[in-house]
UniProtKB/TrEMBL annotation:
PANTHER family: FRUCTOSE-1-PHOSPHATE PHOSPHATASE (PTHR43481), GLYCEROL-1-PHOSPHATE PHOSPHOHYDROLASE 1-RELATED (PTHR43481:SF4). Mg(2+) binds at residues 9, 11, 171-172. Gene3D superfamilies: HAD superfamily/HAD-like, Putative phosphatase, domain 2. The record marks 116, 147 as: Important for catalytic activity and assists the phosphoryl transfer reaction to Asp8 by balancing charge and orienting the reacting groups. NCBIfam families: bPGM, HAD-SF-IA-v3, PGMB-YQAB-SF. It holds the Pfam family Hydrolase. This is Putative beta-phosphoglucomutase YcjU. The active site is at 9 (nucleophile), 11 (proton donor/acceptor). SUPFAM superfamilies: HAD-like. It comes from Atlantibacter hermannii NBRC 105704. Belongs to the HAD-like hydrolase superfamily. CbbY/CbbZ/Gph/YieH family. Transmembrane segments: none annotated. It comes from the Bacteria. Keywords: Magnesium, Metal-binding.
Length: 227
């Protein structure tokens, strides 16, 4: 395999904003009389803002309580609180191993892309001082099918000018791993309890160039044997 690009999820891979999403949803949900816990939050990983709200309302038995307009007001309120929490984010919030890996990719002429469902992705990359590290960021506002549909990863490939077979995707959510696999890209999972990842690592600290090169080598040998 001729590796031309790595395509990254943002939340849980580049930085960890899951807790900030949780705090914002928790306060908004509490005002609706719904108590959410960390387990609920885990189920919202990789899920878009409106879909997250639907899940929370369903969880609280209020799936049909609000009109579409009211739901937009609630989601906007959540986002305002989330964005306020993001002001605390700086380059020190980049997860371990990510900055050296991005530098290594640049050195090797391998492109870096972003495939995040977050409409706040550009703002977050700017806070982390990482805008220049990415060659292309897929625009979540133009994506019509959420992960596990492959649309956002395919949009990232198109923007980078590569085909999926030349890429590795990195994800911390099952929906993301499934999306990467459907594309025909190699997948790397970060964290426990992910199924069907081409390589599963326990944290971003393990996401080194050496591990990636090892995966490429292994895949090439397996392909040669199967031929
Ligand atoms: C990521 C997070 C989700 C979040 C989604 C949308 O995928 O993992 O928890 O709901 O982005 O984020 P946004 O910033 O657009 O509300
Ligand atoms: Mg994620």
């Amino acid at each position: 395999m001729m590796l031309k690009a790595l395509i990254f999820d943002l939340d849980g891979v580049i930085t960890d904003t899951a807790h900030l999403h949780f705090l914002a949803w928790k306060s908004v949900a509490a005002e609706l009389g719904i108590a959410i816990d960390e387990r609920m939050n885990h189920a919202l990983k990789g899920i878009s803002r409106m879909a997250s709200l639907e899940r929370i309302l369903q969880f609280g038995g209020k799936a049909t309580t609000f009109s579409e307009t009211q739901k937009i007001v609630i989601a906007t309120r959540k986002n305002e609180r989330y964005v306020a929490l993001l002001s605390s984010l700086g380059p020190d919030a980049i997860l371990p191993g990510i900055a050296p890996l991005l530098a290594e990719l640049k050195k090797r002429g391998i492109k870096a892309g972003l495939a995040s469902a977050s409409l706040n992705a550009p703002r977050i990359l700017a806070s982390l001082n990482l805008l220049d590290a990415f060659d292309f960021c897929a625009d979540a506002s133009r994506i019509t099918h959420p992960k596990p549909h492959p649309e956002i990863f395919l949009a990232a490939c198109t923007g980078l000018g590569v085909v999926p077979e030349e890429c590795i995707g990195v994800e911390d959510a099952q929906a993301g791993i499934d999306a990467i696999n459907v594309c025909g890209m190699l997948s790397i999972g970060i964290g426990a309890s992910l199924n069907n990842a081409g390589l599963l690592l326990s944290s971003t600290e393990e996401l080194t160039w050496a591990r990636i090169a090892g995966l490429l080598d292994y895949t090439d040998k397996a392909t040669a044997v199967n031929r």
